[in-house]
């Protein structure tokens, strides 16, 4: 009987959902914008040195996949470089804004065009405008690169909503996994263009930064003031997302990010929520 009891007990344990983390550990998955340009850019190290609390993991598969991992209980915190959707809020997800970002339209610095209207941007990224001469540039093909389509990347979705009126992206564009590498591609291609978080420019080497520029959109530049006020038309919040109210060590990290020290780290590449 005792043997049968233990066999049944083991079978029951194996049938239960696997517990992937303990409630008080910090494991992050989500936006590469937040992961690369805030967490890896000093926030994790500063928090660990200040508190002695260690991160278990920082993964950057994109906002959609990070939120999915949070809902499945695989991580304790997700990052979203966009607003939470209504359905996500209905599932008890709560987003805490730690900063604001602009999605910039980057081109090679040798490109003579400095300003585009939203309608022109929409035309380029839907594939209807194919030559730079159509927007005041030289007679050359426009070579668009994007993140990998179909992966629910927050930057692509937010840009599609804010700059393209939710119209579908064109086909035949070069797809690149890491947004930082999209900027690298444009630095090498005089006819290239991409839409990437403005904050990721800091993640590119100085020699390549000197070879790219960000367009003004409708005459408005992506300055801190214009991003925070919403005057720059392609801006978005940067959220740390929890399943329910933040608690334990995750709450301590979010509180740290809203402190002066944490906001100074955000301010290196983005616009902080608190000055």
Which features characterize this protein?
275 residues, single chain, 22% strand, alpha/beta, two-stranded parallel sheet
What features would you describe in this structure?
By secondary structure, this protein is α/β, with parallel strands linked by helices. The protein has 11 helices and 12 strands. Strands 1, 2, 3, 4, 6, 7, 8, 9, 11 and 12 form a 10-stranded mixed β-sheet that branches. Strand 6, helix 6 and strand 7 form a beta-alpha-beta unit. Helix 10 crosses helix 11. The radius of gyration is 21 Å and the shape is globular.
Brief write-up:
This protein is about 40% helix and about 20% strand.
State the distance separating the first and last CA atoms.
68 Å
The ordered H/E elements are HEHEHEHEEHEHEHEHEEHEHHE
Low-confidence stretches: 4-21
Structural class: alpha/beta
How much helix, percentage-wise, in residues?
A: 25-40%
Largest sheet: 10 strands, mixed
What is the averaged pLDDT score? 90
User: What's the number of extended β-strand segments?
Assistant: 12
Radius of gyration: 21 Å
How would you describe the shape? globular
Strand percent estimate = 15-25%
The number of helical segments is 11
Produce the secondary structure layout.
Blueprint (H helix, E strand, L loop, with lengths): L1 H14 L10 E5 L1 H20 L3 E5 L3 H9 L5 E4 L5 H5 L2 E16 L6 E2 L1 H8 L17 E4 L7 H10 L10 E2 L3 H10 L3 E6 L8 H4 L2 E3 L1 E2 L6 H6 L5 E9 L4 H11 L1 H7 L4 E2 L3
Parallel strand pairs: 1-2, 1-3, 5-10, 6-7, 6-8
Antiparallel strand pairs: 3-11, 4-8, 4-9, 4-11, 4-12
